Amino acid sequence: MSSLRWLCRPDNSMAAILWAMGLSLLLQGCLCSVGQNDKGCMRWTPKGEDVCCDECHPGHRLYKDCGPRPTELCIPCEPGTYTESSKSYMCKRCTQCVGAQVYVKQCTTTSDTKCGCREGLICGDVPCSFCIKKCDKGEEPAAKRSCRPCPDGTFNDQIHQKCKPWSTKCPNTEQKIMARGDALNDIKCANVSIGTVSNPKKPDPTENALPLVLTVIISIVLMAFGIIITIIIMAKKIFQKSEEEGEKPIQIIRTPTDDPTTLIAIECSFHEAQQEQGSSSESLASKDSSEPLIA
Fold it and tell me: Are 138 and 156 in contact (CB under 8 A)?
């Protein structure tokens, strides 16, 4: 009675309100703790004197649909099994990682085992039921769980992905293609001035033909000049050779012969020479005798 009188005082009205709120929260917490249960059926529907389970607790499977007590409608999954359904009559067996697989996460009553692959390998499907060779950049997965290089005109800059075709144009209109792509990279673009892009200069055919014509003309002139120089040098050598041959004395070498006609001609020419010599000697003697002697 004394505590009620204290609460009824005007100056203690605020304290009374706070005390009532705290008592209410305490009672609600006690009621919730009494009704909580993480085993058996989590949600049920009354049906006469029984209840029918609508949803089991996680990690539990349905034992029977209806019964007098909700805790008897669902039972936990056995060790090595799991269930992801809230209303299933059977638990699934946990997956075992074998061969090239490694354990990433162990199995629980609410989730299956999560497997991975050893270094250099990659999962072949979403649940990672098998492992395949991991394809590097510039490659793509092929048949028989192997890898192949990206075909010409495609590239791949990701690990174990399909090759993608090169872009046919730059993403921005102010850019132009500067280099073609390769197995690892797409085409390379670079910014250019707007004037160059909007008013590109068309190539003049005469500008491209003029250097070629000049090259041909220069080549012909050089070739002709070389031929003329060669002819002059050869003519000079021939002329010098002919001059050297003209300066040499011509020696007539008579070969011995037994022909009588030839021998008579030689003898006659010899006697004629002696007669000429004798006549010249007589003329000199007569000249000397005709000169007066000086005492």
Answer: yes
Dump pLDDT digits (tens) for 64-82: 999 999 999 999 999 999 9
- In the beta sheet, which residues pair with residue 190? 176
Say which residues have a Cβ less than 8 Å from residue 92's Cβ, sequence separation at least 6: 81, 82, 83, 112
Residue by residue, DSSP assigns 101-159 as EEEEE---SSS--EEEE-TTEEESSTT--SEEEPP-TTEEE-GGG-EEEPPTTEE--ST
Q: Where are the domains of the chain?
A: 36-93
The helix (H) or strand (E) run that includes residue 66 is strand 66-67
Secondary structure (3-state) at 54? strand
Which residues is 51 bridged to in the sheet? 46, 67
Q: Measured between alpha carbons, how far is 168 from 150 in angstroms, rounded to an integer?
A: 17
pTM over 0.85: no
Around 249, how many Cα atoms within 13 Å sit in the side-chain half-sphere?
Answer: 3
For 6: left if phi > 0, alpha if psi spans -120 to 50, otherwise beta; the answer is: alpha
Cα–Cα distances in angstroms (integers) from residue 291 to residues 40, 279, 280, 281, in the given order: 185, 19, 17, 16
Report pLDDT digits (tens) over 167-176: 998 988 888 9
Residue 47, SS3 per DSSP: strand
Task: Give how far Cα 128 sits from Cα of 102, 103, 120, 123, 158, Å.
Answer: 10, 11, 15, 5, 20
From 83, 118, 84, select the one nearest 103 (Cα to Cα): 118
Quickly count: other Cβ atoms within 10 Å of residue 91's Cβ. 20
Contact between residue 137 and residue 182 where contact means Cβ atoms under 8 Å apart: no
Q: What is the CATH number of domain 36-93?
A: 2.10.50
